[in-house]
Design goal:
It is built from 16 helices and 22 strands. It is an alpha+beta fold. It folds into three domains: 3-217, HUPs (Rossmann fold, 3-Layer(aba) Sandwich), CATH 3.40.50.620; 241-315, 2-Layer Sandwich (Uridine Diphospho-n-acetylenolpyruvylglucosamine Reductase, domain 3), CATH 3.30.465; 321-446, Phenylalanyl-tRNA Synthetase, Chain B, domain 3 (3-Layer(bba) Sandwich), CATH 3.50.40.10. Strands 3-2-1-4-6-5 form a six-stranded mixed beta sheet, with helices on both faces. A five-stranded antiparallel beta sheet has the order 7-8-11-10-9. Strands 12-16-19-20-21 form a five-stranded antiparallel beta sheet, with no helix packed on it. Strand 10 (299-304) and strand 11 form a beta hairpin.
Length: 447
């Protein structure tokens, strides 16, 4: 069976797209994408070409863009291109150049797809790319999902060459006299994928000559195993997760009985931006005190009595103000003024809290940023003049506060410690002493 016949069969057997669909091909100018372009032309598909110039290789980047432009012209198809300041953006976002290039590329492809009314975006990933991906995922610890490799189809992204080996594409290129532009960075081991391609896999092949074929066979088996795995995980989630508005509540006792615990915790948490290494921390929360929490880039998991509560950080931050120094800070409940007095002499009257809405704290005990937020269940502090900690809920009961009064109360937090209940009392650990050299004064005005 020719490569073109295999190409057509793979597309139809996996229901990747219809012959009448309009396709957007991601073309770099290298062997793989040039072959993809030729196969789509030979198959009679309706397609356009998109090329990203990441401006990472000087004149070579300009050469590549020119080559792909000519390729589109030769095939009489639409050409889309973009120049991206990849290094600058990667620096601003504090991510690797590879990460930035990938995110920027797919974001732009989707914009072009919508604007040009293309049905799908086709990339030239092939079987050897999949082998490298699986090995990298194994060492990253991504679990069974990563070990089944890249999907032939994921939403609008289609990879119709995953059936083909790299040598097959190279043979097709040569036999059809196709031109391409070589990427010299493929020879460099600076990039993780290249290191696996040029160093790791050849080393493994010395002991296991059939390593590539074996991994491809494992990918097929693991893809089916992953389907069963997903069904089991979905069953556990249905039993454990209670959706309450924008939060997810998980009963601690029920979760502790679930087996295998580590796997179930990881699969629940990964949906909210937590990584495998944080699974142990989440399990530790099960036996921790109320108020303890860990967070990902998007969510926070909080222990609240007999529950773990997963809440989006955006929802929490909506009622929070981050204080990173002196100045005036506005919140929905009022305005906070932060002042610093250095080298001041502490008077006997200042050793006590000045007033309910003004707090004087020992500056040497304070580290910015601080957080102004509403109080929540599980919060505790060491009330001024008391050596033992006290939960805020109990403090409010003793103060005989009504429900509406409690709902309005804000706290100032530092490093997960409540240092001041606004309108009530400071934490004893941050009070002024006769050894205090600098004073941090917090003044709150209700709106």
């Amino acid at each position: 069976m020719s490569l073109l016949e295999q190409f057509r069969y793979y597309i139809s057997s996996n229901n990747l797209f219809l012959p009448t669909d309009k396709l957007l091909l991601a073309v770099s100018g290298g062997v793989d994408s040039v072959v993809l372009c030729e196969l789509c032309r030979n198959a009679g598909f309706d397609f356009g070409i998109a090329h990203c110039n990441f401006q990472l290789r000087g004149d070579d980047s300009e050469r590549d863009e020119k080559f792909v432009r000519e390729l589109a012209k030769k095939n009489s198809v639409e050409f889309h291109s973009i120049k991206i300041e990849t290094k600058r953006i990667a620096g601003e976002q504090k991510i690797s150049v590879q990460e930035a290039a990938r995110a920027l590329r797919y974001t732009w492809f989707e914009e072009v797809r919508k604007a040009g009314m293309y049905h799908y975006i086709l990339t030239a990933h092939h079987a050897d790319d999949n082998i490298e991906t699986v090995l990298m995922n194994f060492f990253r610890g991504t679990g069974i999902k990563g070990l089944k490799g890249m999907e032939p189809k994921l939403d609008r992204i289609v990879r119709p060459l995953l059936f083909a080996r790299r040598y097959q594409l190279e043979e097709f290129l040569k036999s059809n006299g196709l031109a391409y532009v070589p990427d010299v960075t493929n020879l460099s081991d600076d990039y993780t994928r290249n290191y696996f391609r040029n160093q790791v896999i050849p080393l493994i092949r010395k002991s296991f000559p059939e390593v590539n074929e074996n991994i491809l066979g494992n990918i097929e088996r693991l893809r089916e195993a992953e389907q069963l795995y997903r069904q089991a995980i979905s069953g556990h989630k249905r039993k454990l997760l209670e959706i309450r508005e924008n939060e997810v509540h998980i009963p601690v006792l029920k979760l502790k009985k679930a087996e295998p615990l580590h796997t179930i915790v990881y699969e629940i948490a990964r949906d909210y931006g937590f990584n495998a290494a944080q699974s142990e921390e989440i399990i530790a929360l099960l036996d921790s005190d109320s108020g303890k929490y860990i967070q990902s880039t998007s969510h926070r998991i909080i222990k609240n009595r007999n529950w773990l509560i997963v809440a989006p950080l955006e929802a929490e931050r909506a009622g929070m103000v981050i204080i990173d120094g002196t100045g005036k800070w506005e919140s929905s409940e009022g305005n906070l003024k932060v002042e610093m007095s250095t080298g001041a002499t502490v008077s006997s009257s200042q050793l006590k809290q000045v007033s309910n809405f003004q707090a004087c704290l020992d500056a040497k005990e304070i580290k910015f940023p601080l957080l102004l937020r509403k109080w929540k269940q599980g919060d505790y502090f060491y009330p001024l003049g008391m050596p033992k900690k006290k939960k805020l809920a109990r403090f409010f009961i003793d103060a005989k506060l009504s429900k509406t009064e409690k709902e309005k109360i804000c706290v100032v937090e530092m490093d997960k410690k409540v240092i001041w209940i606004v309108g009530h009392r400071i934490d004893d650990r941050f009070k002024l002493t006769d050894k205090t050299k600098s004073i941090l004064r917090l003044s709150f005005t209700q709106t």
